[in-house]
Amino acid sequence: MKKTTTGSVMLTALSSHRTHCYAWVTEKNEAPFFCKECLKEVILRKGSVRIHHFAHKSPVTCQYGLGETDVHHKAKKGIFEALKTNPNCSYCELEKKINNAIPDVYAVIKKVPVAIEIQRSNITVQDVCDRTLAHHKNGLSVIWVIPSIDQLKIFREDNQDVSRVPKWLECLHALAYGRVYVWSGNGEAIIPIHFDRFTRYVPSKEFYNSYGEYVEVGGYDRTLKDRKIVLPAPELVSIGTDFCSLSHLA
Ligand SMILES: [Zn+2]
């Protein structure tokens, strides 16, 4: 996977009139812009490689937007734009500050307020816990979305798709009752993925030990704890349309 630089960047900022500016429909001559979190001035970047975004000026002291890569922004913008047109979704906003937390996408889906969090490149178990708890305290359900299947670092072993599931991913899997959601690359469609035990057959062996006793070992499946089988669901699910079936997860 191509390595993308991660700074302290965001898709939206405040104008000097405190209105909401989306980077992709804002022009540089509308400056200045301000970070929603620290209220310091941020710069609009409209390059040709990454999705247009705002960035903190250095030295960066604000944590907001850290670890947001281009793939993170693509997922966030894709989900936001799709939900805005979904009739089940009565309200949708990007990077909306709710008390002390800023979910990537905030949506009211079938009257349920939901925080959609896109996994950041620098995510830790502590981040997952802190952000989930902060949203729950604000009365929001939470759906975590992994922006790209590349994040699972899948490899083939014993003719199966396998991943060395890191702790943060295990944590998301547990929070969603045994699955994680990966952005499909298109709109609000996500791929549910279950991680299953990876086992390897230990062949049976029979022999006599040094005491002359007959010993039989093996003949069972051993679980390898450092890897899991990656099992994607056969069908994609839509955040806005299938939310009832997702909501028990949060
Ligand atoms: Zn800031």
Unreliable residue runs: 1-5
**CATH fold-level name of the largest domain:** Trna Endonuclease, Chain: A, domain 1
Q: Tell me what portion of residues adopts beta-strand conformation.
A: 35-45%
Structural class: alpha+beta
Q: Give the tally of β-strands.
A: 18
Q: Give the overall form.
A: elongated
Q: Helical segment tally?
A: 4
CATH class call of the largest domain: Alpha Beta
Q: In the CATH hierarchy, what is the architecture of the largest domain at level 2?
A: 3-Layer(aba) Sandwich
Order of helix and strand elements from N to C terminus: EEEEEEHEEEHEEEHEEEEEEH
Average pLDDT number = 91
| Terminal residue distance | 30 Å
Radius of gyration: 22 Å
What fraction, in percent, of the residue positions are helical?
10-25%
What molecules are bound to this protein?
Answer: zinc ion
Task: Put the structure in a nutshell.
The protein has 250 residues and is of the alpha+beta class. It has 2 domains: 68 residues, no CATH class; 181 residues, Trna Endonuclease, Chain: A, domain 1 (3-Layer(aba) Sandwich). Helix content is 17%, strand content 37%.
Structure explained in plain terms:
Strands 7, 8, 9, 10, 11, 12, 13, 14, 17 and 18 form a ten-stranded mixed sheet that branches. Strands 1-6-5-4-2-3 form a six-stranded antiparallel sheet, with no helix packed on it. Strands 15-16 form a two-stranded antiparallel ribbon. It folds into two domains: 1-68, no CATH class; 70-250, Trna Endonuclease, Chain: A, domain 1. Helix 2 (125-137) packs parallel to helix 3. With 250 residues, the chain is α+β, with helices and mostly antiparallel strands. It has helices at 70-84, 125-137, 167-175, 243-247; strands spanning 9-10, 12-15, 20-22, 33-34, 41-45, 53-56, 89-94, 105-109, 112-118, 141-146, 155-157, 160-163, 180-183, 189-202, 205-208, 214-217, 220-232, 237-238. Residues 1-5 have low confidence and may be disordered. The chain contains four helices and 18 strands. It binds zinc ion. Zinc ion binds next to loops.
